[in-house]
Amino acid sequence: xxxxxxxxxxxxxxxxxxxxxxxxxxxxxxxxxxxxxxxxxxxxxxxxxxxxxxxxxxxxxxxxxxxxxxxxxxxxxxxxxxxxxxxxxxxxxxxxxxxxxxxxxxxxxxxxxxxxxxxxxxxxxxxxxxxxxxxxxxxxxxxxxxxxxxxxxxxxxxxxxxxxxxxxxxxxxxxxxxxxxxxxxxxxxxxxxxxxxxxxxxxxxxxxxxxxxxxxxxxxxxxxxxxxxxxxxxxxxxxxxxxxxxxxxxxxxxxxxxxxxxxxxxxxxxxxxxxxxxxxxxxxxxxxxxxxxxxxxxxxxxxxxxxxxxxxxxxxxxxxxxxxxxxxxxxxxxxxxxxxxxxxxxxxxxxxxxxxxxxxxxxxxxxxxxxxxxxxxxxxxxxxxxxxxxxxxxxxxxx
Amino acid sequence: xxxxxxxxxxxxxxxxxxxxxxxxxxxxxxxxxxxxxxxxxxxxxxxxxxxxxxxxxxxxxxxxxxxxxxxxxxxxxxxxxxxxxxxxxxxxxxxxxxxxxxxxxxxxxxxxxxxxxxxxxxxxxxxxxxxxxxxxxxxxxxxxxxxxxxxxxxxxxxxxxxxxxxxxxxxxxxxxxxxxxxxxxxxxxxxxxxxxxxxxxxxxxxxxxxxxxxxxxxxxxxxxxxxxxxxxxxxxxxxxxxxxxxxxxxxxxxxxxxxxxxxxxxxxxxxxxxxxxxxxxxxxxxxxxxxxxxxxxxxxxxxxxxxxxxxxxxxxxxxxxxxxxxxxxxxxxxxxxxxxxxxxxxxxxxxxxxxxxxxxxxxxxxxxxxxxxxxxxxxxxxxxxxxxxxxxxxxxxxxxxxxxxxxxxxxxxxxxxxxxxxxxxxxxxxxxxxxxxxxxxxxxxxxxxxxxxxxxxxxxxxxxxxxxxxxxxxxxxxxxxxxxxxxxxxxxxxxxxxxxxxxxxxxxxxxxxxxxxxxxxxxxxxxxxxxx
Amino acid sequence: xxxxxxxxxxxxxxxxxxxxxxxxxxxxxxxxxxxxxxxxxxxxxxxxxxxxxxxx
Lengths: 399, 532, 56
Known about the structure:
The complex is a heterotrimer.
Chain A: H1 7-13, H2 20-27, E1 31-35, E2 50-54, H3 64-70, H4 76-87, E3 95-99, H5 103-114, E4 126-130, H6 138-160, H7 166-188, H8 199-211, H9 218-229, E5 240-246, H10 252-260, E6 263-270, H11 289-300, H12 309-325, E7 330-336, H13 340-355, E8 361-366, H14 374-394
Parallel strand pairs in A: 1-2, 1-3, 3-4, 5-6, 5-7, 7-8
Chain B: E1 7-8, H1 38-59, H2 62-70, H3 80-87, H4 93-120, H5 128-131, E2 134-137, E3 155-158, H6 160-170, H7 176-184, H8 193-203, E4 213-217, H9 222-238, E5 243-246, H10 258-276, H11 282-306, H12 316-329, H13 335-352, E6 360-361, E7 363-369, H14 378-386, E8 388-393, H15 409-424, H16 429-432, H17 436-439, H18 441-449, E9 454-460, H19 464-467, H20 470-480, E10 483-489, H21 499-513
Parallel strand pairs in B: 2-3, 2-4, 4-5, 7-8, 7-9, 9-10
Antiparallel strand pairs in B: 1-6
Chain C: H1 2-28, H2 31-49
């Protein structure tokens, strides 16, 4: 296929957290709200002059300093973020809002606060920690509403004069939905038998939508969607279509590696992927927008730490439904090393998707930066692709 | 660096002076029991007789024999007397009596819990009517939501306590099998081994199966929350036992989580009512609340005694009792009140007599973090070997606030918030979660209040909440002039750090940093890596 | 008859003394735990041979 016109542009934006668009947003007088977890309602971080920037640490190498503070036993993303914060990589942030979701990420941000890695010259800078929902009940919606009021809206209003009115929230949701529709429409091309977009390309676009100010990328995403409508797919077909499920994938190299092994990543269901992160929020007029946004996040959350059994089972059903919708031949459950929630979810998910839903499953752990152990991962994926092919042959199908 | 005044014991200890000599390299147990002088040896002997009678009475029931041969973890309970020996190393006088009083009570409680499990267990006793009156809860769970139920009609079964938690204390290798099972089935080896072992027990089908319903809790960490999902799946889908997940907020110091937590308690109570057919009784609740307050007052008094130069409460036996009382009991059983007061009486007597339990106390320590289950007796060793007096451990630093205990319409609403508060502030999570202040600042405050010069940091390798602040502990301890001694372990997997490897970390620190010699060199290296 | 009755305390004392001597010997020399140690390997084998329905 011909290269996408803006792919290089988006790839460049992923090279560092403080990318060109973040700098532009700062120059535009925006308030950069840094965050670390998908469970924080994103539109609420994009009210008025506020723009959300998800913290990432591309090209992570040495983690020496963060390892001193957090030991080698915490997950690499949490240490990578702390290392990058200590290096000054997040100096653009005007505040950090993080939920007490997974313990390790919470500790990473606490270390950032204690070490005063950000906001030294900004008297309005603040850190906020939120409690987030554990279940998909109305009690959890009430909790989310209160937490968002106390830890997002009030601090943003008091420190930066952000308009947190109902109208402002509705406007932010509208913008959010526009982005979601774009990403989903682009992602829909992955359903095709001969897809017009690779899993890698989609991952770059989707990740950019989290780490860049949204208002600055919409135009190029729209152009990309138009370009895809007429893009000629490759003639060669993939050996297997796989659905990628698990911890956050901040390194597009992982998706690239999987696709180099002959698989096509037809769908993504990981933290900060397009499922469920890029699902539109449908607002009604008869209820305040904040409650509706919170309900959306509580009900649609697929985080493994949602603990009621209904959610535990429905997460696997959700994966199975996606696999069906995107015609996946197999599922890769991946977990970044030392991530406790995904360690258990990977085990149960792999077992249920295999035994209850009949999908071939590869269950792997991986480093944050795949370049540090790409050989092992390549071997695992190659073997998985071959096993899918063999199964297809055994069923009398075409390999 | 901060220093504390050395306190020298003017009295020579009766009996054995070097208890390290009774450890045996060849045997997995000690070559003989400790000679403590006539009076204390006879006392220890009578307590041993009592333990044997408890175990004997248990095994005389046929269904218990059946259960013994069905469940692998039951093997651990053969070593209860050995466990008692571990918890009384070098002890005399009041400390010996405190250890026995608390430990024997815990043993009686655990034995009863096993007997209850076997009675209702579908594979063993299969007493259906009894099983239908049982509610299963987590090992690490506060049972406040059961405080208002008549305990003669609704039975709370902390199924994981005898199966995993207690059994690992008596037999250090006991959970290795379950960890292997869990890892064979795909859980990585880097998660906390306690919930991992519990998940392994479930996968290995080695839990008793009973109860009309189960209540789970996101107790201490991401691992325990996630492990519950695996256990609940088997309970629900294979055994048809409905489970309720009682969500407990993590940021327990923030007032804006209280309404949520209280509502969850209401839901848990409604769930238990629906499945047991029993109604919540406010009279029973407020009686239990009075007992909770009484236990709290005793705990505050204990802490005060330990803040003096002559601490009386230390070691695993006492902290295990505290755990059982605070979490597993939550004021439901009046027997605990008597034991609480007896323990306090003993401690006051010891304090008045300025009783010491080593030749000298050189250092005063706060023990922070989570102790290794398979080396839980190490606090006694610290006193005897190095004269380091552990004033309190993190798991014993729990709620000191009183809860509403009079039955009024306002207090009934307040009661849900009290239960929620206790639930949120359950052992371990009250410090490992809720923001860095409860983990860091609370430690320094305790060092100040109890005049400690050392913070002994149990660094449980897989406890991400604790290790996540490793560097901050180092830096803040330096700023305050507090010695910080890191002691790594892997909670219940002795393959990662053996008992001696744990002790060696202390030995090295004491010799190289403190430049001290042990009080009792016979204890510095002990051949107990292979012991039960 | 009285003579017989008078012996009862002595018999009881003898039983108590015997009980004390035996149990104290077991206690002091840790014979209970030493015997248990011998039992443990056999029990391990027993538990290993039991069929389990290992299932997630």
